Amino acid sequence: MTNEIIATDAGDARVTWHRAKKARLVLAVSHGAGGGIEARDLQALARVLPEHGVSVALVEQPWRVAGKKLAPAPKTLDAGWRGIWSAVAAPGLPVISGGRSAGARVACRTAVELGARAVLALSFPLHPPGKPEKSRAAELLGSGVPTLVVQGGNDPFGKPGEFPEGPYELAEVPYGDHGFAVPKRAEITQEEAVAVITDAVVEWTGSLG
Questions:
Q1: Cα separation of 26 and 57, whole Å?
Q2: How far is the C-alpha of 186 from the C-alpha of 23, rounded, in Å?
């Protein structure tokens, strides 16, 4: 595991690398608006994917590096993401653009522009909780590259059944909320829920070459 600080137009970002010994892809993945790279899904992917030929770059947006508690406007998030791209593309491998929640929106909005091989959208916030009429589906549908959505079955920001048909794949984490936490009464354990995430991403990245 290695860290590097990257200067962007939005401030300094931090990239934490979990490298595969024989990498064929890079997954650059960022956090949401309410947390950092310590999220259970991000940590699980960083632990598992290198064993399958995918180097993982966990990206902390400049606002997190600066110690701020609130995420900035979407255009500032996009600027931070653009700023780290040359670093994650430096190994010369195809790069999957990924993120959870707000980070997934950033990945979708910038994928074609940055030349991403694909998009991994974890807990895509299809709409604000309780406001399905304020849909962000256009961002997801407009990613322009192969896209995998991994969504909790009980995510208040959009349950799997609420997602429109489109040119993307969707994997459901049963009982999972927006952070993929499952209640103790669920028929699967928290460890099994996390395994659903990593298994789906391993299979999907295997299809990308």
A1: 7
A2: 36
Q: Is 67 left (phi over 0), alpha (psi -120 to 50) or beta?
A: left
Strands (E), the chain: 2-8, 11-18, 25-30, 54-60, 95-100, 118-122, 147-152, 169-173
Give the span between the Cα atoms of 171 and 41, in whole angstroms: 13
Structure tokens at 10: 């939005």
Rounded Cα distance between 49 and 63, Å, is 27
Give percent helix, percent strand, percent coil of the chain, each to the nearest 5.
35, 25, 40
pTM: predicted TM-score of the whole model, two decimal places: 0.97
Q: How far, in Å, CA of 125 to CA of 102, rounded? A: 7
Instruction: Please tell me the predicted confidence (pLDDT) of residue 209.
Output: 73
- Rounded Cα distance between 94 and 5, Å, is 21
Which residues are 28's β-sheet partners? 57, 97
Q: Which two tokens stand for residue 47?
A: 């632990």
CA distance 190 to 184: 8
Interval 79-91: pLDDT, tens: 999 999 999 999 9
Q: How far apart are CA 70 and CA 157, in angstroms?
A: 18
What is the rounded distance in angstroms from the CA atom of residue 146 to the CA atom of residue 6?
27
Name beta bridge partners: 14.
5, 60
Cα separation, 52 vs 172, whole angstroms: 22
How far apart CA 46 and CA 82 sit, in angstroms, is 21
